[in-house]
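So, can you check?
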Amino acid sequence: MTRALALDLGTRRIGVALSDSAGTVATPYETVHRSGDRGRDHRRIAELVTDTDADVVVVGLPLSLDGGRGPAATAILDEVDVLAAAVPVEVVTWDERLSTVEAQRSMRTMGVRRDKRRQIVDQLAATVILQSWLDAGEPRRSQRSP
């Protein structure tokens, strides 16, 4: 089985989720606050990969609603190329359309206060991304060609 670490790469924060060792359930793990230094942020992610014994990093890819690649997806793919050189495991991308919306909706349903939501939304979005990837059977392909 695969232990996966998922990332929701934002401009200010990076949401991190982790799968269980059986590779079936995703849980929120951490929020990495962007330092302004991409190399430092990527080194932190590499530390997380090592600390959690992750076998793969799954990065949310924000495709457009029609499945096309817009500016946000292009920026993520550019960062993924750099990140892949910084971590000791395979990095794959996975469609994250509406993951943040789903995370926000879940928190509202659970009655999480707005100020608390801001603190954990990135982790929950990463969890949604990772659970979707796990449910799809851990596909080892990158979604680079929409």
